[in-house]
Design goal:
globular; alpha/beta; 484 residues; 11 strands; 17 helices; D-Maltodextrin-Binding Protein, domain 2; 12% strand
């Protein structure tokens, strides 16, 4: 899930003032944070006859914005690959092209460029929900299965496949998490909130009740219990909706089959709507949540307006730039959390397939994944979390892991770390959350699904929302049309 486009004039003067706080947070926290080739004879390839060697040249990787900032970890890893290629005298050099705009705008740019051949992209960094669409359209090449080995977290590895074929390699993952104000809870008499594995939404409701009962013990800035990305104009409401639907399901929720066709039922949808309505009750949800994206909710939470926040892993680093370890806590999202993230795929028209494959293998290898984890991303490999001998040598001191954590004088961030330099929450919270996460529907028509899904869910935010039973029937009928 990417950042949504700006929406001037939709929030109050207080919101505009709090936006200044986010600018300061991102300046501090983000300048340090919602697929290998199939061979030269892959469909649409321009590399010449099968087995013909690549001509040395520039390898272009197209991607969305790096939440670790300009010159961030992705660029650092590419710089390291370039150094290695230079030392080998290969004649190859990689260049990162960051696409502007929201995630939807980036998807449109990539689709247009690959369909028309107007951009010489060799590697494309795809949102996990885009893989079926790009694979089914023949815009990316099928890859050999060994590129995704058993070290890749199984739930994450599944995002790289379409119809049991590999089309991408997981680069960095993402998963919904629950951030909370530890200092607010302590002021309310809750020293150790019970938010471990297996916690359900009523646990959060009970804790919010304790905050509300604390009254003047909390700062004047506190308004409501929690906030999330509920804006229907982008992917935020889809993600929060799927998390509610999956949490309410008696079994694993599957709204599509292996071919991307709709398989949901009215009963499943009704249960999900009931859960979503419960999670977004006006009595404890910040009113601005219905027009909020990732940046908005970060601003509101960091500004003290809420005690709880649903967000992505990069918020751990960003929020710690203004909130100390004693004030900020993080836990798995109660119920089911949705997987996000990006996967690297080899563009159909690449003229440098062998070198592009080596670049993908390097960027998704064990050491690179450890570097991504140290920098604030959710790594895709188990070894990044579990192998204490694995260290990152390609990053700046603020993200580099050594035998012990980097000295405070070397760091440019305030993110808490374990003795091996990983983010302190990586093993105990982030990894289990990734392992237990669920995917959004897998279909080449995901854009149509998301648009239909959010359009119907947005009716819950109206002055006269329909009943769950009626909305479930309407949503069922519309999804059957969107995903024939």
């Amino acid at each position: 899930m990417g950042h949504g486009p700006g929406r001037p004039g939709r929030r109050s003067a207080r919101r505009r003032a709090s936006a200044l706080l986010l600018v300061l947070l991102l300046a501090a926290g983000c300048d340090a944070g919602g697929d290998g080739p199939g061979g030269t004879d892959a469909p649409g390839g321009r590399s010449g006859a099968a087995g013909a060697p690549d001509a040395p040249g520039e390898i272009v990787l197209a991607s969305g914005r790096d939440v670790t900032g300009k010159g961030g970890i992705r660029q650092q890893l590419i710089d390291e690959w370039n150094r290695q290629e230079l030392s080998k005298g290969s004649g190859n050099r990689a260049r990162l092209v960051e696409l502007p705009g929201s995630a939807d705008q980036q998807r449109s740019q990539l689709l247009g460029a690959l369909q028309s051949g107007s951009a010489e992209y060799d590697v494309v960094n795809l949102d996990v929900t885009w893989v079926p669409e790009f694979a089914a359209a023949g815009l990316v090449q099928q890859l050999p299965a060994p590129l995704v080995d058993s070290d890749v977290i199984p739930s994450v590895a599944a995002t790289a496949r379409w119809r049991d074929q590999l089309y991408a390699v997981p680069f960095n993952s993402d998963v919904g998490l629950l951030f909370y104000r530890s200092d607010y809870l302590k002021a309310a008499g809750v020293a150790e909130p019970d938010l471990g594995k297996g916690a359900a939404w009523p646990t959060v409701q009970k804790l919010i009740g304790a905050l509300d009962a604390a009254g003047k013990k909390l700062p004047d800035s506190y308004e409501k219990g929690w906030t999330a990305q509920l804006d229907a104009s982008y992917e935020g409401l889809t993600v929060n909706g799927i998390e509610a639907f999956a949490s309410a399901a008696d079994k694993e929720l599957a709204l599509t089959d292996a071919d991307g066709r709709y398989t949901g039922s009215v009963d499943d949808l009704k249960a999900g709507l009931d859960e979503l309505r419960n999670r977004t009750q006006a009595s404890y949800t910040l009113p601005d949540a219905v027009t909020s994206d990732e940046a908005d909710t970060l601003t509101d939470f960091a500004g003290g307006r809420t005690g709880f926040l649903r967000h992505w892993p990069y918020a751990y680093r960003t929020l710690h730039q203004s909130l100390s370890e004693e004030k900020l806590g993080v836990a798995p999202l109660p119920g089911k959390a949705v997987l996000g993230g990006q996967n690297l795929a080899l563009a159909r028209g690449s003229q440098h397939t062998a070198a592009a494959r080596r670049l993908i293998e390097f960027l998704t290898g064990k050491e690179s994944e450890r570097c991504l984890l140290d920098a604030g991303f959710a790594a895709t490999r188990l070894s990044a979390y579990e192998d204490d001998a694995l260290v990152c040598k390609a990053a700046k001191p603020s993200g580099r892991a050594t035998a012990t954590a980097p000295a405070a004088s070397e760091r440019t961030d305030r993110m808490p770390r374990d003795p091996r330099g990983r983010p302190a929450y990586a093993r105990g919270t982030l990894l289990p959350a990734l392992q237990n996460a669920v995917q959004r529907p897998r279909t080449p028509l995901y854009g149509a699904f998301s648009q239909t899904f959010t359009a119907q869910l947005a009716r819950l935010q109206g002055d006269k929302p329909p009943s769950d039973a009626q909305l479930a029937k309407d949503l069922h009928a519309q999804l059957k049309k969107a995903l024939p």
